[in-house]
């Protein structure tokens, strides 16, 4: 098979977990579809398919055949159209709910207090008919379409229960003498039919509203990008164009207060930019010529021009949105079990309702038919699988959104569900525990102050010609100057340093091997200082003029400010923390000591990291790998939970299931806390959904009637069913209010 596409499509017309399962199975049955996952909570289908065998249009036709629709257009204008469509659907649902309630209320009042008025059954018939045939029409249409395909879902339950109650009541209204001749009063259940439809519509309305709240993180992210942008032409003219028309290489102008429209690099001007929306760091960052800027971040005071590099779906913001969308559309392992249950739930309930009807007909006595019908209708009404179907996806969606708000991007539901089980975590050193950027930490000058200015200028001039990363560290340690001088001779010696000649003076900048080659004498006091720095895992370079030591510098990859605290918090949660690095043993030992870490391995190859993870997994551990480089990709793929640092390589981010945008290790304990809260919420939701059905269905079938003479009214059953769905969604939304203080992880 050739190219494989992985896309998310909105699905419209679904009303329950069984709907989602029907749509999912229909997609899976199509030739060329490898995987399909339909999430009822956000009405999205995540499909992996071969475009050579099946097109998006084919998928839509398949979905249309079972009564739903698949929106396949991806243009920005279509995205706005989709939002309008959702708003229209919500307004339509609101309108139907309001009218159904308005017609149902007098039916209930009549049924409870005014049953003795003339033509009472005909009045209720007139009021109930629009509720079923107009405002609740969707349930019957969907049930009929599925029946033609020999399938059933929640709409089937609603249509059967309310339809049977309505037809039974209609017959009793038209032919009351049929019962009178048999000495039985012809009961009607118009109020049950009307109110059940009204309550279910109300439940759907509240679910729709709540589910839109779970997607607020996506909407906020999409809203970060401005609609228009100012483009600069070569002749100096400016124009405002839609951001969708920006191409790589375009020069764009950003004014104070503007949002950055696309990713790029500053070519003129400077400013401070608030990147908190992308990195989570609250302080604005100074940006000058050559600095990278990202879509969705907020410019502060200065103006600047920049060249667009990544536009459209290539920007970091677009990737974040895509990751969150795919994550919210994915299913946790527990949800797959729930889907299987939902798949057999509807047929099982229909069988139970028919069994209840049969038993009541056999043992019901004088009012057997009425009691049998009441029991059958109530079972069908109360057994709605909505609460069961919503239990997992709503919690997952809110958890994903909560993570995105805190700078934790989670690619799939499985990693979110699994993270709370982590008991071993592997940390890469460079770029994960450390900044990944060498910096000068200590400077010792051996010459008087007046001479240092001239020597600094020479040092920067020499290092500016070197491409070694340590040279950049030296340059960054001093104030930049434009008064560079050009050396008469310049030579880079691999593994040692550089040699330069200027005005007949020979300058050396390098390590101890270079000094030995040129027989440079190092004073004993300075030798001791160098030894101390090296024991602390710092790289030492010397600056020499004509074999005389001018200065010595200590360079180290600085440990992140929060690394020590993050490692301590992970250990407090009972998690074994390991550091694996390709660096030498001395450096690894020094870094491990500074972050209070006992378990570390040095000089390991990329494959060694993956093998070490396998070894821990064979011991029964749930292993997380945290890394930022291409060399970590193998280990990330092997780990149970893979976490990439957001400032690392694109490949590491692509492989990992989670991404810490700001590269702050403290967010990892927070991610584990989020996982714990999300899984707890899922379990709570499933508990209440199952308990609701386990208790409600037997009562609806009439199990209490022989004991206390109690029969559950279908109207009350409809209210309870709607309440169960809303309670599950509301419980999931409580996640939004939780604080992810990582030090609460063990509580």
Output the structural class.
Answer: alpha+beta
Beta percentage is: 15-25%
The description of the largest β-sheet is: 7 strands, mixed
Q: Average pLDDT, to the nearest integer?
A: 80
CATH topology of one domain: Rossmann fold
The order of strands across the largest sheet is 14-26-25-24-15-22-23
Would you write up a description of this structure?
Helices cover 52% and strands 19% of the residues. With 747 residues, the protein is α+β, with helices and mostly antiparallel strands. A 7-stranded mixed sheet has the order 14-26-25-24-15-22-23, with helices on both faces. α22 (585-594) links the parallel β22 and β23 (599-601). α8 packs parallel to α28 (714-733) and α12 runs antiparallel to α13 (368-382). It is elongated. Among the domains are: 5-74, Alpha-Beta Plaits (2-Layer Sandwich); 226-314, Calcium-transporting ATPase, cytoplasmic transduction domain A (Distorted Sandwich), CATH 2.70.150; 410-434 and 560-666, Rossmann fold; 439-559, Calcium-transporting ATPase, cytoplasmic domain N (3-Layer(aba) Sandwich), CATH 3.40.1110. It contains 28 helices and 26 strands.
Topology of helices and strands:
Layout: E1 5-12, H1 17-28, E2 33-39, E3 44-49, H2 56-64, E4 69-70, H3 76-113, H4 120-135, H5 137-148, H6 154-174, H7 177-180, H8 190-214, H9 216-222, E5 228-232, E6 238-242, E7 251-254, E8 263-269, E9 271-274, H10 276-279, E10 285-287, E11 292-293, E12 298-299, E13 304-310, H11 316-329, H12 333-363, H13 368-382, H14 386-405, E14 408-410, H15 413-418, E15 424-428, H16 429-433, E16 434-445, H17 449-463, H18 469-477, E17 489-493, E18 497-502, E19 505-510, H19 512-517, H20 524-535, E20 539-545, E21 548-559, H21 563-572, E22 576-580, H22 585-594, E23 599-601, H23 606-618, E24 623-627, H24 633-638, E25 641-645, H25 650-655, E26 658-660, H26 667-701, H27 705-708, H28 714-733
Parallel strand pairs: 15-22, 15-24, 22-23, 24-25, 25-26
Antiparallel strand pairs: 1-3, 1-4, 2-3, 5-6, 5-7, 7-13, 8-11, 8-13, 9-10, 9-12, 14-26, 16-21, 17-18, 18-19, 19-20, 20-21
Helix pairs in contact: 1-12, 3-4, 3-8, 4-6, 4-8, 5-6, 6-8, 6-13, 8-28, 9-11, 11-14, 12-13, 12-14, 13-26, 13-28, 14-26, 14-28, 26-28
């Amino acid at each position: 098979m050739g190219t494989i596409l992985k896309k998310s499509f909105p699905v419209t017309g679904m009303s329950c977990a069984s709907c989602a399962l029907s749509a999912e199975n229909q997609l899976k049955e199509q030739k060329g579809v490898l995987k399909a996952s339909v999430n009822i909570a956000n009405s999205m289908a995540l499909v992996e398919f071969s475009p050579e065998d099946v097109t998006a249009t084919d998928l839509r036709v398949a979905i249309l055949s079972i009564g739903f629709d698949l929106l396949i257009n991806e243009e920005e204008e279509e995205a706005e159209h989709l939002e309008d469509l959702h708003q229209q659907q919500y307004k339509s649902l609101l309108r139907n709910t309001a009218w159904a309630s308005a017609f149902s209320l007098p039916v209930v009042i009549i049924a409870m207090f005014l049953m003795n008025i003339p033509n009472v059954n005909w009045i209720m018939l007139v009021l109930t008919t629009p509720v079923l045939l107009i405002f609740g029409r969707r349930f019957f249409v969907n049930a009929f379409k599925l029946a033609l395909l020999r399938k059933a879902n929640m709409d089937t339950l609603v249509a059967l229960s309310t339809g049977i109650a309505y037809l039974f009541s209609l017959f009793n209204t038209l032919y009351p003498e049929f019962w009178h001749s048999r000495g039985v009063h012809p009961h009607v259940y118009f109020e049950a039919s009307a109110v059940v439809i009204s309550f279910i519509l109300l439940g759907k309305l509240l679910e729709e509203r709540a589910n839109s709240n779970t997607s607020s993180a996506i909407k906020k992210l999409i809203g970060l990008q401005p609609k228009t942008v100012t483009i600069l032409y070569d002749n100096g003219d400016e124009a405002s164009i839609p951001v969708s028309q920006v191409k790589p290489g375009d020069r764009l102008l950003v004014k104070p207060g503007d949002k950055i429209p696309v990713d790029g690099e500053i070519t003129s001007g400077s400013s401070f930019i608030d990147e908190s929306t992308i990195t989570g760091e609250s302080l604005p960052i100074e940006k000058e010529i050559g600095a990278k800027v990202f879509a969705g971040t907020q410019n502060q005071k200065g103006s600047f021009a920049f060249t667009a590099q990544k536009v459209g779906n290539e920007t970091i913001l677009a990737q974040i949105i895509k990751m969150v969308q795919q994550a919210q559309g994915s299913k946790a392992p527990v949800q797959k079990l729930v889907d299987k249950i939902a798949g057999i739930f509807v047929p099982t309930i229909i069988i139970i309702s028919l069994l209840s009807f049969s038993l009541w007909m056999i043992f019901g006595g004088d009012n057997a038919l009425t009691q049998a019908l009441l029991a059958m209708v109530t079972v069908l009404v109360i057994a709605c699988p909505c609460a069961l179907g919503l239990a997992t996806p709503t919690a997952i969606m809110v958890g994903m959104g909560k993570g995105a708000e805190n700078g934790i991007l989670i690619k799939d539901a499985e990693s979110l569900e699994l993270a709370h089980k982590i008991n071993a975590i592997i940390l890469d050193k460079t770029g994960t525990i450390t900044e990944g950027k060498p910096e000068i930490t200590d400077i010792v000058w051996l010459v008087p102050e007046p001479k240092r200015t001239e020597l600094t200028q020479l040092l920067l001039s020499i290092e500016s010609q070197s491409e070694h990363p340590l040279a950049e560290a030296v340059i960054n340690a001093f104030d930049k100057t434009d008064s560079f001088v050009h050396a008469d001779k310049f030579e880079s010696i691999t593994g040692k340093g550089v040699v330069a000649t200027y005005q007949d003076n020979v300058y050396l900048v390098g390590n101890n091997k270079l000094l030995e080659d040129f027989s440079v004498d190092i004073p004993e006091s300075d030798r001791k200082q160098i030894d101390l720095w090296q024991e602390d895992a710092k790289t030492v370079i010397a600056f020499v003029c004509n074999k005389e030591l001018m200065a010595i510098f200590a360079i180290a990859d600085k440990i992140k400010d929060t690394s020590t605290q993050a490692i301590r918090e992970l250990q407090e949660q009972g998690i074994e923390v390991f550091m694996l690095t390709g660096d030498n043993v001395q450096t690894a030992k020094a870094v491990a000591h500074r972050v209070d870490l006992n378990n570390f391995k040095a000089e390991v190859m990329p494959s060694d990291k993956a093998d070490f993870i396998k070894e821990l997994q064979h011991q029964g551990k749930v292993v997380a790998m945290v890394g930022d480089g291409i060399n970590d990709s193998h280990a990330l793929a092997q780990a149970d939970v893979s976490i990439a640092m957001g400032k690392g390589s694109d490949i590491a981010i692509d492989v990992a299931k989670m991404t810490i945008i700001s590269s702050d290790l403290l967010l990892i304990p927070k991610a584990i806390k989020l996982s714990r809260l999300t899984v707890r919420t899922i379990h709570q939701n499933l508990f209440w959904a199952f308990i609701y059905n386990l208790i409600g269905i037997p009562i609806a079938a009439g199990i209490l009637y022989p004991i206390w003479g109690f029969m559950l009214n279908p109207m009350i059953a409809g209210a309870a069913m709607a309440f169960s769905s809303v309670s599950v969604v509301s419980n999931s939304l409580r996640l939004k209010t939780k604080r992810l203080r990582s030090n609460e992880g063990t509580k």
